[in-house]
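Weekly modeling sync, notes
Attendees: S.R. (lead), two postdocs, one rotation student

Agenda item 3: backlog of single-chain predictions. S.R. asked that every request posted to the team notebook include the full sequence so nobody has to chase files. The rotation student volunteered to paste the first one in as an example of the format we agreed on. Action items at the bottom.

Example entry:
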Amino acid sequence: MSTREHREPGPAHPITVTPTEGEVVVRVAGTVVARTTSALTLAEAGHPAVQYVPLDDVDPDVLRPSDTRTWCPYKGEASYWSVSAGGTDLPDGVWGYPDASPAVARIAGHVAFSPDRVSVTVG
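Predicted structure, as returned to the notebook:
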């Protein structure tokens, strides 16, 4: 049985979670699939900042749960959804941490969209 290593963010690997100012709109093939003024920006060392949108602000008709799971030692186990809109299907294009690690607990109940596969605007 393998154990997953948990790590705490710190000076060597900082992670911050802050409220996003303004509205975040997510589009797939031009179709709005999420719109919120309650997004969170997660900034993690060595990675571009990611917008986490409350799951309640995502159109539930465009999401399908996936069996895919991944592990991040800083955030915990990620669950995935496929998203379909505008005639486009994006397998595993959305992820979230339902049981996020304590250091990033604020992102629980939020999801992120693969930024190279969707349009995310903040403003």
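Discussion: group reviewed the output briefly. The chain is about 0% helix and 50% strand.
Action items: rotation student to repeat for the remaining queue; S.R. to check formatting next week.
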